[in-house]
């Protein structure tokens, strides 16, 4: 594990001071052998109200709700119009039904808004996590680029050294050949 720490530290070293904080986060995640996206996950426990708001918003925006509510309204109107011959507990123009629908709408709207606000917060956190993962990937790509540059530089140095040795050998051979031909 100590070798890995040294290796990661050398990979993440840079002259840019703005990346120090990010490098520390990335280094810590690498040392703990965790993905940054897993490290940044925010495991929130939802309160009862938040769970209810999500449930109401989910149910209120579904076909089940629309169909169920349409059936209830149809049954309400049918009972009051046909069964009680328009002398039921809520005769035409169905004022009690209108009052109930208004109350449901008045309660459902803020609950849906609370759920949407929580969804917006989750989306913001997800965007931050994506940013950190992308930043880590960028650093890793830069590191790979630096490694490739280093390898190419070392390879070029080795090639120049080999070329120098070859040139010296060729000069020696050339001198030996000239001396041999002069004799």
UniProtKB/TrEMBL annotation:
Keywords: Membrane, Transmembrane, Transmembrane helix. Coiled coil: none annotated. Pfam families: DUF1003. The chain crosses the membrane at residues 65-85, 91-114. It comes from the Bacteria. This is DUF1003 domain-containing protein.
